[in-house]
Amino acid sequence: MTQVQEAQATTAQKLLHHRVVVVGGGNGGISVAAQLLRKSKGLDVAIIEPSDKHYYQPLWTLVGGGDAKREATVHSEASVIPKGATWIRDAVTTFCPDENALVTAGGTKVSYDYLVVAPGMQLNWGAVKGLPEAIGKDGVCSNYSYDYVDKTWEFISNFKGGTAIFTHPATPIKCGGAPQKIAYLADDAFRKQGVREKSTIIFATANAGIFQVEKYAKTLRKVIDRKGIDARYRTNLVEVRPATREAVLVNLDTNEETIVKYDLLHVTPPQSAPDFIRNSPLANADGWVDVNKNTLQHTKYPNVFSLGDASSLPTSKTGAAVRKQAPALVKNLLALIESKPLSASYDGYTACPLVTGYGKLVMAEFDYDLTPKESFKIDQSKERRTMYWVKKYGLPRLYWSMIMKGRA
Ligand SMILES: Cc1cc2nc3c(=O)[nH]c(=O)nc-3n(C[C@H](O)[C@H](O)[C@H](O)COP(=O)(O)OP(=O)(O)OC[C@H]3O[C@@H](n4cnc5c(N)ncnc54)[C@H](O)[C@@H]3O)c2cc1C
User: C or N terminus of the chain, fewer CB within 10 Å?
Assistant: First the structure.
């Protein structure tokens, strides 16, 4: 039996074929599909996506900080599927790249000439003991899920003083800056609510420093000092004890365990490539879709490409990075279809709008070498109100009206 036959043995058989199949109708998948259809009218493109909702996740930071509405971050998936694309509402379970095919949870076998893989990241709530039971209740919240992001603001706005802990796990995560942004907003909110003086804010991060690009880290260290935040580096949350409101933190260098009583605990869950990617022939040793870091073409299967959070691209996992990856991928995929050399090269560009308070933002932009690659002719390492507006109003507009349409 072939891999496809094995995967289908227990399910009813349905066979489909499309010229280009895109796995995942999120930021990366829709960007690529929309750009492909703009550049090559009539191309047969199918998108496999199980969810009927599409989320603009970057705004969840401001939702958690009470400065945006959760409902503004969600559109129907149907509204972002590009005209001319076929939407297969199903989840991929198995890849069989030697047979140019995949199998879905619904038992459909889909074969393709070209494959684009963009299923994002998996949130591993269960990797922290006690977290699945604690999340969303009694002060435990997270901006990393549409389901819990409203809880963040509920718990921050009702905070009466005590200890608030914000965590950053020991795994790659989406938007490396998001775990600290919400700590800065909470500090501002507590000041406005008049409870900051009776509060301790701990930022517990598995990282060794506050940010990997020194130009921006310099500013962030000053922000932490100004706000009086207790930043604990190389520190990982390993357990939540909701009954006693205790967080168990471990120092990653010494293994020393500290138990801290919390009144508010904002958790960024450990994250990984989705299991169906990790367990597939497309994955590298760490589980990510193994692609060339410049061309975005798979290292073993030339008709397979990947972008976004699930890819092995060694840059910070953001929508901003996807915006620069998508055009390079599309150009190279179309070149391959026309048997031309792949000439587009992605340089690792990524951005992190580091919210440092209400109306304050450091717009970090950099590439694979951690060299700043800034879009504005100003010193972007400074906290600026204009950049906050860009995040709150400009980028969501750009996303829904340009990026989702394949125009940016
Ligand atoms: C709290 C938070 C703050 C953030 N802040 C920023 C920011 O300020 N700036 C920024 O640029 N980025 C930010 N990001 C990151 C940004 O949202 C992601 O990097 C971006 O969405 C990645 O795009 P993607 O297409 O790889 O994944 P996603 O957009 O997550 O899309 C993945 C899609 O794949 C689908 N899928 C999953 N499993 C399957 C399957 N088995 N079969 C088929 N489809 C599947 C999912 O349903 C989903 O629709 C933030 C993220 C979070 C959570």
Answer: N
